[in-house]
Amino acid sequence: MSDSTPTSGKNGLKKATGVSPMNGGNGDYSYHKNSYYQRIAANFEHEKINEEIAEKFDIEDLALTKTIRIADLGCSTGPNTFINMHTIVEAIKQKHETLCPTSSTRPEFQLFLNDLVTNDFNTLFKSLPIDREYFVAVVPGSFHGRIFPESSLHFVFMSHSLHWLSKLPAALEDENSPAWNKGRVHYANAPDEVVKAYRSQFGEEVEKFLDARAKELVGGAMLVIIMSGIPVDLPFSSTANGVMFEFMASILMEMVQEGWIEESQVDSFNLPIYASASPEEMRNLVEKNGCFSIERLELAKPSSWLKDSVDVQDWMMHVRAAMEGIFIKHFGSVEAVDEMFKRLTKKHLDHSQLLPEWCDKEIQLFVVLKRKKIICI
Fold this sequence. Notes:
Keywords: Magnesium, Metal-binding, Methyltransferase, Transferase. GO terms for molecular function: metal ion binding; methyltransferase activity. InterPro entries: MeTrfase_7 (IPR005299), MeTrfase_capping (IPR042086), SAM-dependent_MTases_sf (IPR029063). It holds the Pfam family Methyltransf_7. With 377 residues, the chain is an alpha/beta fold. Helix content is 39%, strand content 17%. The strands form 2 sheets. Strands 5-4-3-6-7-9-8 form a 7-stranded mixed sheet, with helices on both faces. Strands 1-2 form a two-stranded antiparallel ribbon. The radius of gyration is 21 Å and the shape is globular. Strand 3 (67-73), helix 3 (80-99) and strand 4 (108-115) form a beta-alpha-beta unit. The two termini are 26 Å apart. Mean pLDDT is 89; it is low at 1-17. It has one domain (6-371): Vaccinia Virus protein VP39 (Rossmann fold).
């Protein structure tokens, strides 16, 4: 996740310029209790992560490395992060044994868990496995900039974090801009100017992200990213998330007519999410940076990891756990936000027969990068 600061717009309205942390605690709407879909989406990639580590993880002097440092960027409140970290640690241990079969010592592991400074780290700590074979430290802050010393990390992992923007494109906050997104909350079915503004903001933030990681990773280290993405020729509005964002906008406009909220609040609200990065787009950004080799870059679809059909009630609880803070920060009324999510659930239930079609899309991007053993400027 990325940091977020409210700013005052016209008419004194508060506009959230970036994301908020996932809902903390362990209540009904907490991310701790409502992150199952994110978990199985990441678990789907575990076999690929094992393959990449077994075949390509070859940091210099692995036999002499006493401590292997791993970071999870955008860890939220757990317990998903510890499931992912266990997979990575076990795969690297196996790799070390393969490369150094006669070594009398085994490396120790230090895990760094990163998220916003306002993340509920206390709930995260309560999920720490008792039998863990690694040391844990927390590093709060935005992953779009430097958060670790130079050449200090051997493996960086992030799941469903990079598609969150640290701030909205400036053009979306200017009423005189062609990208002023009146009556919408996202770029799904929006004018081209809105899409371009989001894409440009995402590109700038990924550039900063890759620059920071290039300095923090040692030569040969790995960077694994799981994030939202789609094929270059797939309209985002035809995906489950695209449809959901359009539902949100229509519901909010209904609530304007009923006096729940002001129309100006809807016009000035946009979700800080770029969920349609294509493999080609990511490839161009990585190649522009020049410090990483692309080891794997591919798309997957939810229908391949969901054993059962999507439970609408559960899915909406997950959405609420992830996004409620952003809505409350902007609209101010907990009651109005609660009403919006109730209507959003009903809207999806009314269209549940279309969910299989919306979900049968390639909307998850799996990226494996390797830090080149060169000096990058």
